[in-house]
Write a structure and sequence with these properties.
alpha+beta; 144 residues; single chain; Sufe protein. Chain: A; three-stranded antiparallel β-sheet; binds zinc ion; 19% strand
Length: 144
């Protein structure tokens, strides 16, 4: 199976069966963002305590890229310290800007979204949940 096909399969599987797709009753933060270009909407919920993302969930609707990116993001950052989550976020944002991936272990399944960079208009979809995360955990960093 070609890598592109494998990546497409990962995206479609997360779109059809999104992980952590629910409201989080005891969230300490929540944030809704929309991508008017595509009609995507993401509400991110997180319970953050002792500088750690104890739990993270989302609700949303829109295209497969935005929803799969949110699902993959929650899997990647759940249980991580804020520093670790910021590091994963920086790696992901770099990949979306077309920068070479230095640490593909940090990104893991998120590499499935690497092909999105070939379609600049879809990058907005992929970064939407990450922009919500950035506003929550790294408000001093520049937005995309
Ligand atoms: Zn979209």
């Amino acid at each position: 199976m070609a890598l592109d096909d494998l990546y497409r399969e990962v995206i479609m599987e997360h779109y059809r069966s999104p992980r952590n797709f629910r409201e989080l009753d005891d969230a300490t933060v929540s944030l809704t963002l929309t991508n008017p270009l595509c009609g995507d909407e993401i509400t991110l919920y997180a319970r953050i305590a002792d500088d750690r993302i104890e739990d993270v969930t989302f609700l949303g609707r829109g295209c497969s890229i935005s929803q799969a990116s949110a699902s993959l993001m929650t899997e990647a950052i759940k249980g991580k310290s804020l520093d670790e989550a910021v590091s994963i976020m920086s790696d992901f944002r770099g990949m979306m800007r077309g920068e070479p991936v230095e640490d593909d272990e940090s990104l893991g399944d998120l590499l499935a979204l690497s092909g999105v960079t070939k379609f600049p208009v879809r990058v907005k979809c992929a970064v939407l949940p990450w922009e919500a995360l950035r506003q929550v955990i790294a408000p001093d960093q520049t937005p995309e």
